[in-house]
Amino acid sequence: MSYKKAFLALSCVFFMGCSSLNKNSSNLTRNEVQEEKHTHLKEKKYLSLKTGQQIDYKAEDIRSEVVEKKEINGTKFIEVYDPLEPLNRRIYYFNYYLDKYVLIPAVNTYEFIAPKFVQKGVSNFFSNLQEINTFVNSVLQLEGRKATITLVRFGINSTIGILGLFDVASALELPKTYEDFGLTLAKYGVGNGPYLVLPGFGPSNLRDTTGKAVGIMSVSEVNPYDQPIGFDVNNPGVTAMGAINARKENQNFRYYGTGSPFEYEYVRYFYTKYRDTLIDVNDVNGRGE
User: How does strand 75-80 pair with strand 67-72?
Assistant: First the structure.
C-alpha cells in the first residue's frame, strides 16, 4: 500500500505544478482546481502605481478576487489579502496605546476647553481643505461638473466663509462631494493591494496609503492661504489640530472596544467594504445613473 500512497502524492505534486498548462485536465479534482486558483491569485500583481501602464483587468474583478470567505471557530469572515498580518496586528496594538494615552485625552481636553461653535468652525476649516483633493481628483477622473462645484464651494467658503470656518456653500445648496487619489487609482483599474494598518491612521491598503500620501502632499504644496494672508496650513500647530479634529470625528471607534476576539478581522473587513462602496458609488455617478 505504501507505494500506492507515494505514487498518489507524486501525482498530486506533478498535477499542481503543471496546472497552468493543463487546467482542463479531467484528472484534476475540484479541490485541486481551487488550490490552483488560490495560488494564482496570490502570485498576481494587485497594484500598479504607474497610471500610464496598461491594466488589463477591472477594479471590481480584483476586489472579488482578493476577498474570500473564511471560517474561524465557527465564525464566518471575509478574508482580505493581508500578507503583513503579523506586523499589522502589532501596529494595531500600537495604535491602541497611542489612542488611549495621546489622541483620546487630547480630544477630551479639546472638547472640554473649546466651545461647540469653535469645534464646528475647526471641523469646517479642515473639511474645506479637503475640497482641494476632491477638486484635483475630480479633474483626474474627468468629472467636470463635480470639479466645478467643488471649486466654487472652496472659493465661497474660503472668502465669505472666512477660510472655511463657515460652510456658506452648503447653505447655498451646493452639494459637498468627496474624492481622493486612492479612489482615482481605483477608477483606472488599480487594485487594493495588500491590507495595511498605518501608525496613527489606522486601517488602509497599499493603494489608499498611496492616495493618502498624495493627498497630504497636495494640500501642503497648494497651501492655499499662504500667499493671500500668510496663513500656513503646514504649521505644526495646524497639523496637530488636524489630527485631533480627525480623531474627534471618528471617536465612536475604539481599538479593542468591541470585546470580540476577532475585532481585527471585523475592522479589516468593514474598511475594505467601505472603500469598495465609495468606488461603486463613484462608478454609478460616473455613468450618470
Answer: antiparallel
